[in-house]
Design brief:
Layout: H1 3-10, H2 15-39, H3 41-48, H4 52-74, H5 80-103, H6 109-135
């Protein structure tokens, strides 16, 4: 992905701003997902075919993770090491989601669509964050 394309996605040519925007978007989406899992674990569990207890635990994890990524995005210059951690965690989440879909879960039709869709979204955040970090020279 070229710097021009990356800049157009982030609507800035400044790599630092692009990185912070991609981190911020990740934080908002992840935090909202976590809060939804916390607030609606029962109905969402039935809709997706995933256990209510698991969604509640994931909700806590995602809300805290989203808050941490949000804090990182709020830094003037997010530390490269922590950005790499976010990128790796996002890749791991995406991969584990797909493994869980095949190995552990017995999802409904909605879950069969939702789980890969959120995995692709999270992997997309990781790619954008990684590219922005490289554009920053790190």
């Amino acid at each position: 992905m070229s710097a021009t394309l990356l800049g157009s996605i982030a609507r800035t040519t400044e790599p630092q701003t692009a990185l912070r925007r991609f981190l911020g978007l990740d934080a908002v989406v992840t935090g909202a997902n976590g809060l939804a899992y916390l607030a609606f674990s029962g109905p969402l569990g039935r809709l997706l075919g995933v256990g209510q207890g698991l969604l509640l635990e994931l909700g806590i994890l995602l809300a805290l993770y989203g808050a941490g990524v949000g804090w990182l995005a709020s830094r003037r210059e997010p530390a490269a090491g922590w950005v790499r951690v976010v990128v790796e965690v996002n890749y791991a989440w995406a991969a584990l989601s797909l493994v869980a879909l095949v190995v552990w879960f017995e999802p409904t039709a909605a879950g069969t669509v939702w789980i890969p869709a959120q995995a692709v979204t999270v992997a997309g955040f990781a790619v954008l964050q990684q590219l922005a970090l490289r554009s920053r020279g790190q």
